[in-house]
Amino acid sequence: MRPPVVDDRPMHPPTTQTPAAVVDTQFDLRLLIQSLRNTVRVNVAVSFVGGAVALGAANRLGDVLGAGSHGAIRIVGAGLVVYAAALFAVGAARTSELVRWTLTASVADGSWVAASALAIVFVPFSNVGIAVIVSVAGIVAAVGARQLALRRRVRARASELSGVAEDPPVEVVHVERRMPVPSTQAWDVVTDHRLYGMLAPNLSDVRVASGEGQGMIRTCSSSRGKEWSEVCTVWDPGERFEVDVRTDDYPYPLAVMRGAWWVRPVTATSSDVGMDFRYQPRAGVRGAVFAALMQAAFPFVLRRILRGWRSEMTTRSNTDPRR
């Protein structure tokens, strides 16, 4: 098996020509792929929940629908659970497989919508049952259409990732927010490592163990008492810094984890602040599940940090004697 590889090019902050989520050409592409991957995962969740409800509450669901055999409902539920499992594998697959099987998934979604329409025509469902079926079909249609639209865009650029190992694939997370302070003040807060440890709910402490700037080593402690080290690989004062996590001691099933924190001036009194992460889960089901859960939860964690940063920046700005 090839070792996990993440592209080694440094991640650069967005520019005015590339707003929002672009850090470099490949990161931009990875964000697009991530959108497709996460849309497939939404499909997984919808299918699994629907299947679980059909299996666990077939009798009640039959009463709500107003027609249909309870046995048939259980069969449909089992099929949905199997479909969700297959989709989960697609969501965790390398980009080429993701693109290939997303088309099949979207065709299956379209078939569900068509079957729902036929069922409404030929089966005497209750009004509530019709509303439920139409609602579910609408969700499935929206997810399927988004899959197709994203697949088309990813397919047009997938060759750009040739030669990069994707066993498992690299995943990315990006967040940013405009701050009402100059970039110099924003940078002071972004590089306050202890503050970062206080704001991140999964951390209890972040401290510099040795060095400064590029080559700096900082130690992170989780809220459960686990520790690991991170090495600063890029340090552009006032602009950005990046770290590589030493995953040998990392308490999460990730083979690679890299982060970038950046500040970009917008006006004399405002700046954009952002965080970009690339990670590659360890091979296996545990890593794939964690990667999916991380995509769901990590953006909320990072937005909480951004809110904390904004509050701290405002406080420091108001007490700055230079004002």
Please characterize this protein's 3D structure.
The protein is an alpha+beta fold and 323 residues long. Helix content is 52%, strand content 20%. The protein is built from eight helices and seven strands. It has helices spanning 25-56, 58-65, 70-91, 95-122, 127-155, 183-190, 193-199, 285-319; strands at 171-179, 203-210, 217-222, 227-236, 240-245, 254-267, 270-281. It has a seven-stranded antiparallel β-sheet with strand order 1-7-6-5-4-3-2, sandwiched between helices. Helix 1 (25-56) runs antiparallel to helix 3 (70-91). The longest helix is centred in the last third of the chain and has 35 residues, at 285-319. The protein is elongated and about 70 Å long.
What would you say about this model in short?
The protein is an alpha+beta fold.
